[in-house]
Amino acid sequence: MTLHLDFDIARDNFMLTVNLDVANGEVLALTGPNGSGKTTTLHAIAGLLPCSRGVISFNDVIFDTNANTTSVFLQPEQRKVGVVFQDGALFPHLDALHNVAYGLRTQAVTKSEAIDRAHKMLATLKIDHMADSSPHQLSGGQKQRIALARTLITQPDILLLDEPTTGLDQESRQDTVRLLDEIFATFTGPVLLVSHQHDDISSLTRSIVQITVERTATHATSTLHR
Amino acid sequence: MTQRSRSLSSPRGFVIIAITCAILIALPLVALIVRVPWTNFWSSLSSDTATTALFLSARTSLISTSLAIITGLPLAWLLAHRNFRGIAVVRALCVLPMVLPPVVGGVALLYAFGTKGLIGSALNDWWGIRLGFTQTAAILAQYFVAVPFFIVVMESAFQQFDQRLAQAARTLGAGPWRTFVTVTLPVVRPALIAGVVLTWARALGEFGATITFAGNTPGRTQTLPLAIYTAFESGDDQALVLSFIMMAVSFVVLVLLRQHWISALKRGGQ
Question: Cα distance from B229 to chain A (closest Cα, Å)?
């Protein structure tokens, strides 16, 4: 029961090769220099961009494959991959509560039940008092918590986090790390986390994978494997 | 003792030139207001020609603006988010009616949808539909000159839109349509309002393409600008009254949306 990644993403002057299996319950950190393809890797898993060649599969479900004989591309909404974006990417026109309820409303959950469950999720993360706040009223750490709540409430099979602690001050960074630690302890699927912050990673993850980059004057080749 | 100006000096002559510019804009408007026959304002306004033109303008401009919204949104979205062969040509074509003399647009519409036109002849032969010189023609003329404004504003808004919000919605289980309606549109709402108002104002003021393609039939294609022109030609004071109405409408719209649209246009809606 693993997330199986064996794919290339090719652009004009950039080539990313990923070869990696992540087991259920495993928390894996991706590190590497800017522009090496960390976020691109997460986007490929989530279905936000197709791979150029290879296969992305989870358990027995093929998310994306592009070979001579077969071509599959599951849309993001069909994958049950939860993504916590850098800075949260909260919907600016919705308050915190409705941000969290959004992912339930896309399923066959009634409005009142969605609101009810969003309240409970906020209470679980001890941020119920922010329910009526607009995203622009929240601090970086608070946004990150709401974004986590918004993703977790949909009960994803796979959890992806893009630089969850970047841009936070010391105190909210520690808070976020503590919270993530609790979440990872109970999350049953694979977790991939992109980060620059080596200190944070070391306390959160059991394995770290470094993306290596080879650059020529016109071309960059990134490789990601254990 | 002379009092020196306590601010940084402007380039010499700028103030006087700027005042001239402002006067050149304001003077004709003031001249028009001064000449409005206030004593028989209401009788002029409630005449048959005037009310008919008013309602016709309201109806046709609302329909053409709605058409512009429905058809312009997908096009603007695709121009902003997809890269396809010939996108530069499509983009240029979409903006062309903005700089084209409207009368040329009217002639072009006639050759497309008129009874001898490219599509018009087929419409006439197969279904007996004649578009030229009908109310539909007036709507098409307004649509043709106004939809570019909507496309330009919305394309810029969609480009500025933070794509990660749409991506987040998709990973939360929303399909492309739900994402567009529940996330993209609400976020670009300021630009949407600005675009709709601009488009509607352009449609309401449309003259050249309408008179060429739709003609000047009272009750059918004689919209407000055409009624003004006709009244003015016959030396009727009604022209002044109707002109004043159009000016007032434009002014109210501008004041109401002052904050909204100017900043939205500058920032592309974000």
Answer: 46
**Interchain pair B175, A151: CB under 8 A:** no
At B262, is the pLDDT very low, low, confident or very high (cuts 50, 70, 90)? Answer: low
- Of the candidates A46, A93, A154, the beta carbon closest to that of B173 is on A154
CA A225/CA A219 separation, integer angstroms: 20
Asked if the Cβ–Cβ distance from B175 to A81 is below 8 Å, we say no
Enumerate residues 127 to 186 of chain A having a beta carbon within 8 A of any beta carbon in chain B.
150-151, 154
What ipTM does this complex have?
Answer: 0.93
Percent helix, strand, coil in chain B (nearest 5)? Answer: 75, 0, 25
Residues of A in contact with B187 (CB under 8 A): 91-93
Subunit contact A76:B171, Cβ cutoff 8 A? yes
pLDDT at residue A54, rounded to an integer: 93
Contact predicate A21/A2, CB 8 Å? yes
**Residue with structure tokens 């918004």?**
A150
Q: What pLDDT, in 10s, does the model give residues A6-21?
A: 999 998 888 999 999 9
pLDDT of residue B227 exceeding 60:
yes
Question: Of A67 and B37, which is predicted with more confidence?
Answer: B37
Pairing of strands A14-23, A61-66: unpaired
- Burial tier of B27 (Cβ tally within 10 Å: 0-12, 13-18, 19+): exposed
Cβ contacts of residue B17 below 8 Å, gap of 6+? none
Question: For residue B110, how far is the Cα from the chain centroid?
Answer: 21
